[in-house]
Structures are given as C-alpha cells and as structure tokens.
Amino acid sequence: MAKDNAGNPLPPYFNIDPDQALADLDTPTTTGGFAAIAEACARGRSDLASRGLDDAGRKSLRLFSTWEITRYLIPVAPAHFRRVLKQNPDLPQGTSETDGGAKWFTLDEVLRLRAFFGAQGSKAKNYLPYRPEGLPAKLVAVANFKGGVGKTSTAAHLAMSAALDGYRVLVIDLDSQGSMTSIFGGKVDDEWGTAFPLLARHYGEHLRADNQRRLDRGEAPQPLDESLTAALDMSARDVIQSTHWPNIDLIGAQLNLYWAEFQIPVWRMAARTWKLWDALTDRLEADGVLNDYDLVFIDTPPALGYLTINGLAAADILLVPFGASFLEFDSTGRFFDMLHSTFASIEEGENMAARALGRPGMAFEWDAVRAVITRYDGAQQGELAALVQAYLGQTLSPHRQDFTALIGQAGEQVSGIYEADYRDFNRETYARGRETFDETYAAFKRLLLGIWRREEREAKGELAV
Ligand SMILES: Nc1ncnc2c1ncn2[C@@H]1O[C@H](COP(=O)(O)OP(=O)(O)O)[C@@H](O)[C@H]1O
Ligand SMILES: [Mg+2]
Question: Which of 27, 64, 95, 363 has the least CB density, counted as fewest CB within 10 Å?
Fold first, then answer.
C-alpha cells in the first residue's frame, strides 16, 4: 500500500492506475442497459419479496403474545386477562408453541378480545378508541416534496398503530414508486388498480354534465374516450384491496400511476372548469368510503404534482415529516412556500370566477397541519431541533421520532416496528424503538381526538363554528 512521508497509508483516491482502471471497466451503457439493470432489480426484488410469504404467496401478519396484548393493546393485568378467557370459553383462547407455553393470538382475535373487554367493566371505554358517531372518517396526508424524509415510514407506522388501537384504516398510495403498496403486500397490475380510475371518473362525470349543457345550448358534445367511459363504471370499491392486516385496506400504486401527472393537465385544458383538486375527495365521499373507515392515510410522492395536490386537498390533517438537519429544514420551508402559492392560485382562480357570477368564494382549510421531526438523533441534532421548535411553535409536532435501527433491521417481510417479533431483538432496543413510534402515534391521536371532539361539539351547537 502506498504511504505518505509520515508512513501513513495514502487516502484511497491516490495512486489509481489508469490501465488497471480500464481493465476493470465494462462497456458503455445504452438505453437498453437500463432495461437490463431494471430487470436484475426486479428479479432481486421478487426474491426478497417472496421470502416469508405464506403458501398463497401473500404476506401474513405475525401473532401477538399475551404479554404484548396486556402491555400494549388491552391494558389489563395478565392474570385478569387469563381469568376472563378461562371464564369465557367462546372467546379466542390463543395458541402456544409448547405445552403450557405463552399464548399467542392473531390480530383478528385481539380485536375480538378488545371488543369483549370494551363492553365490560368500568374503565372499559378506554379499550375502544374514540370515534364520534355520525362523523366521517378523517383523512390524513403525509407529504413533503423532499424524498427520503420518512413520509412512507411515518404513514405506514401511523396506519399500523391506529389499526392496533382498533381503528378501521384505509391506506391510499399516491406514489407511483409503490413503497406503501409493497409494505402492505398490495397487488397492482396497472393504473386501473390504483386511484387513477377515481380521478378519471370525476373528470368523466364533469365532462358528461358539461356535455349536457352543450347539448342544451345546441353545441356539439366533447367525446368521452374509451378509458373515461370505462372509468365511469368504476367505484372506490373496485380498487380497494384487503391486506394482511385485518383492519387495514389499501388503494395501491404502481409505476403507471405516474401517467396521471400527464393526463390530468390534458383533461384540465379540455375542461377549464373541472375542479381537479376535488377529484379524490369527491369520489371517496360519493362511494361511501368515509363511512366504512375511521382513518384514511394518504402517502404522497416526493413532488408537488397533481396527485399530491389531490391528496392534500382531500386531507383533514396534513403531516410534513423532515429530518432535523439544515438542508431538510430549508427544503421543508420551501415546500410550505410552494403549498401556499399552489393553493392560493387555485383559490384565486376559483374566486375570480365566483365573483364574476356573484357566488360565494372558496377557501381550502385543514383541521391541523403539523411538521414532524423524523429519524432524530438526540446526540447530534438537539440544537437544530430546538431552533426549529422555537421558530415553528405549535406547527411542530411535540414528539421527535427517533432514528431507530429496528426499521432497517426488521427484515424483508416485516415492515417496521409493529410487524416485527420482539423476540428477534434485545428487549431494550425493542422497547425504545417501539416507544418512539408509539409517541409519534400518541401525538397524532391527541390531534385527531381534539379535532373530532371539536366537530362533535360544533354539531351539537356547543361551540361556535
Ligand atoms: N425513524 C427512523 N429510523 C430509522 N430509519 C428510518 C426512520 N424513518 C425512516 N427511516 C428510513 O429512511 C428511509 C426513507 O424513509 P421513507 O419513509 O421511505 O421516506 P420517504 O417516503 O419520505 O421517501 C428509509 O430507508 C427508511 O427505512
Ligand atoms: Mg415514500
């Protein structure tokens, strides 16, 4: 090895021999080279993805132990838990790996047990998560135009915590990279299995109504092409799939969903009055989705394109994850700036038309917007996080989600903390990793319950709207 004058090894970038470098080089890459690389990735991916699938080739969710249930899911004393099960042989009794060993339950069984405990006793209320009657599901979008900031991880973990808490959850993947879809084992063949047909139907219906007006005026209608006609027959239920979680459903994504970014502006050019930002909200509402679920989590691509705008406009709660570093804070500030100009220009355009017609204007509104610090390293980032907190005040979620090795370590088939079996980790590492995501959920849930309570009281006329 080459050494410097003091005898230390030289840095690795010195003394590279060009002839040796040439000998190691492969041939130049052509366009077709990308296809070959993509194909190698696809094969590797399906190898990874197939590990740990059940016989039917689907993901399966692990079991939950009596310890975990009584510690994290139904907070009763383990002895009481066992007693109640013994007294009620009709309840799920769990299975054990060894004779007399710990009992393990499926999540489905946990949900039935929770319903039972929830219907009993004095503190029972607490076992069932609060959801005011008669109010629609809350939609939560997780967005930031920077990639790798923890959007998908945060959305997936919140969805799983909410499901463990007993809520009925729908996850909508608007990112054509489909990470969220992989996490939930979704199968999507093309854009017709994604949110795309819902957007297409919204436009198709607009066009149909528009055509009726044209006919009434004696003008020629605009043609509805084949795909719009097909979309008019589709509902949210056609694209919702179940997952390996009994109370999480999915509208998946796939590369073709990106097509929407090109199609939507073309539609908008053809019909200037089409409210493209309302498409997702309107279709979810019209198809009754907001009554079937308690929470809808929308994962968005790292861009402020038409899909993200639709997701954000549909959202009641907006979460913006970012890391406590200068660059991520800086670009998150710009993201908020872009949000302002994007939605302000939509409002301006709409309200100009409304004023001309003497109609009331519109304004977007979100129940709450929170920036969330993710992948936090207290030893390195404390100062920056404190500064961010000072400037953002209440907009910053009070909990900083710690960096945890559990996320990367969990393995191919398990996505994050809640799918991992705690026996695979040092108990302390597990408890710490889980705690930070439990706290992330707790901060979110406090927000959610406050918002639901506000609406409940407004509906009863107890609060001025
Ligand atoms: N709290 C965390 N601790 C450790 N790694 C994390 C954490 N949150 C996210 N990551 C990792 O950071 C990377 C980017 O996260 P991801 O959620 O995919 O971001 P985005 O959706 O914004 O692109 C992933 O490799 C993910 O596993
Ligand atoms: Mg993502």
Answer: 27
Protein residue whose Cα sits closest to atom 6 of ligand 1: 375
Indicate which residue's Cα is closest to atom 8 of ligand 1: 150
Domain range for residue 115?
64-120
Residues 93 and 220 in one domain: no
Mean pLDDT of the 197-202 span: 97
Cα–ligand 1 centroid distance for 407 (angstroms):
8
Contact between 162 and 105 under an 8 Å Cβ cutoff? The reply is no
- Whether residue 44 lies inside any domain: the answer is no
**Cα gap 63→103, rounded to integer Å:** 10
Q: What amino acid occupies position 53?
A: L
In a domain, 412, yes or no: yes
pLDDT, one tens digit per residue, over 125-151 is: 678 889 998 899 999 999 999 999 999
The phi-psi region of residue 31 (left if phi > 0; otherwise alpha if psi is between -120 and 50; otherwise beta) is alpha
Prediction pTM value:
0.92
Best CA proximity match to 411, nearest among 121, 59, 101:
59
Neighbour tally for 230: CB within 10 Å: 15
Task: Tell me which of 415 and 29 has the higher pLDDT.
Answer: 29
Task: List residues bridging with 250 in a β-sheet.
Answer: 171, 241
